[in-house]
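Thread title: Can someone regenerate the structure for this chain?

I was given the following input by a collaborator and told the matching structure tokens would be attached. They weren't. Posting the sequence so someone can regenerate them.
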Amino acid sequence: MGDAPAARLYFVEGTNPSCPSTTFLVGKRCGNGTWSSGSISCTYDAAMCAGQDPANMLYSLKHSVSDCENLPNSSVQTEAGTLRRFCKISGASSCPSGWTQYKNWSSTKAAPSCSCTCVGGGCCVATTYTATILISGSCGNHAWNNTPVEEATLGTYGTPSWDKCLGPDCCQCKVKATITDIGCY
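Best answer:
Regenerated them for you:
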């Protein structure tokens, strides 16, 4: 009698998660924390699946290395300090349909300028202003890394409609960097 092919167990989390293709459901963790066979009906937050060794799979086992390599301008990445693999798609600002962004992995290009247009109100004369005072965030950019997209809230003093109007609170608006490369799984 020959050896049986190697198999692996996969742990998948989420709301009623699906097993990766080429695997089958062995059990699921129902909302009360108990494990049940796949035939019991419940809302579950984890699944145990069995199938072939996923040497060719990306993080979460939804897509394979080949799926990534078949996308234009893409390459497989491995997150430092982990064995988690995901797909870097260069020149894309969002993940393809059916894919999810992996953490905050991206490269960005700064907004064209650190200013935006807003309409005054409240303690200011209701007119259009150009906001240039940085209230929070950043107007910068970043190279390929696990970093949130830069966003800045800008304000302006405007023209007060009464003498107690202080600070850059006449009107506010936001500018955001553009994602130029994105990590997906």
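The radius of gyration is 24 Å.
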